[in-house]
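Hi R.,

Here are the chain sequences for the assembly we discussed:
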Amino acid sequence: MAASLQAELSALLGAAFAAEGLDAAYGRATTSDRPDLADFQCNGALAAAKAAGRRPRDLADAVAARVKDSALLAAVEVAGPGFLNLRLSDAALDRALGAMAAERGLGVPLASPRERIVVDFGGPNVAKPMHVGHLRSTIIGDSLQRLFRRLGHEVVSDVHLGDWGLQMGLVITEIAREKPGLPYFAAGANAPFPAASPVTIEELEELYPRASAAAKADAARNAEAQKATAELQAGRPGYRALWRHLVEVSRAAMTREFGRLDVHFDLWKGESDADPLIGEMIAAMRAKGIAEESEGALIVRVAQDGDKTELPPVILTSSQGTALYHTTDLATILDRVRSFSPDLILYVVDQRQHVHFEQVFRAARLAGLLDGTRAEHIGFGTVNGPDGKPFRTRAGGTMKLQDLIDMARAAAAERLEEAGLARDMPPGERDATAEAVGIAAVKFADLSAYRTSNYVFDLDRFIRFEGKTGPYLQYAAVRISSVLRKAAEEGRLVEGKVAIASPADRALALSLAAYGEALMSAAEKRAPNILCDYAFGLAQAFSRFYTEHHIVGEPDEALRASRLALARITRAVLEDALACLGIAVPERM
RNA sequence: GUCCCCGUAGCUCAGCAGGAUAGAGCAGCAGUUUCCUAAACUGUUGGUCGCAGGUUCAAAUCCUGCCGGGGACGCCA
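And here is the predicted structure of the full complex:
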């Protein structure tokens, strides 16, 4: 079956343009900018007129004449300088809704070709607490993995732990200073080492900021950390043993936090997993003749003619002999290409690192590591506080992710209380509802801003349950469930087909039929905000429908069946769309 | 200094493969409840799309310059 009504229309119009001797691409139909005049529009005649050497209106008239008898259309009109205004027939809409109701996949076609896609996101660092900065990567990356899976692609998600860089040397030397008696530090120390970690997660989270500040203030302290990093990477047994504890302690905390956000990864690999491939990666660079010594480091020059500014070289090995950010990312590409032969690798990482990825991708292509694999940096803007500056706690410190989610849940609980909702729920369900609502508020707010723009984190606004928020959408879905439950309880649930009978029916049906298009567009642009907009528009269309028609009380059985079917499809689509955003819908609110 | 991103209604943000009267949410104003959850719905006020040029039949959208905000710029990640 065709992808969507919009795609069917585009094909119909494309054939008409082709019959006029023009490119079928001119037939592209889009949702109308003037819903008062049409459901869809096509502006192709305006653009094609020049190529055809014909007047736009004449061309539009010719195309209109070729499509006017299609069963898809109730009306086609040429307006203004040559717009084609298309109004769908109710029969076409009824048929599309019938198809959606019949398929578990809601009529959304699976992607063709099916691709294998690695999504790299989250990117937490061992020894550093996850903070608000990780929020966007996690939420956007998770939505992308859900979206691509939904469309039938094969996705491999990887958290890509930061576990091999200087921060490890910093923490190890800090522990050595504070607890010099531990067995990991003695020269030539060897196994066995203690089975339990010498530090808790709480201690660890305080060690790093201390060490980092000290190294910034004191070059000798920094050199000490670099030396430890080099020794760790070279395999010094005591350091490796301590490092394993640090990784385990951090991972346990991360798993908890990601779990709370309902974010899951196929792979929990880290930079360290790429370490065994570094030698081979560097050998490949040397074999291509692109690696060279410079100032004691091994580099690859990636600047190209035509660059607006000279791109700095990739540093394969530091003058200390350590692996850096570039090194592990390049070795990781080798690993991923070898393990999965992906068609595409997406890196959901802060926009500020865009130069880094340009460098890495260029070096990888020069070395032939990315043959047949596309790589994209999916950058995003920063999360700011209400003052427009990067988000911080009142005291000016970094806000931990954990604390942020706690705040969202508390705000949600308070709002539920005020609204007198969830009062008759048992305490466990009430807490779970508050958590689900709080997280939905945060996720929806984050995802509805376009990726690359910065946005203001204003919990009071997100948690406000009116307007374009996650909770509004959850509420809409819950209300539909409530209607269907009531209909069942009163024995008024009847099966039947959608048959459009009112403007509110029609607006809802049109919105439902546009679901596949919204999913595909969001995936193609790697832009979940498109899906947010769609879901909100659908919820609004349903709210209007709900206000205008009393569904359960509708005496005409066929009409009641149609409206119940619309409600059922709406719930399914809304839940599906929210699932792609990583937002769960509670049973009741 | 060079380069990148952003500048759209009072506030927070969409729109930017050029196209008709620039949209939404919030706030404001006026309404809607014997009826399935009013956390809703309807109507309405509000914008020289940062500024100035250019390309085009047509520019918020493409190009150039300027102003304002944020960011990046070889051994941190």
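Chain A is about 55% helix and 10% strand. The first strand of chain A starts at residue 30 and ends at 31.

Let me know if anything looks off.

Best,
T.
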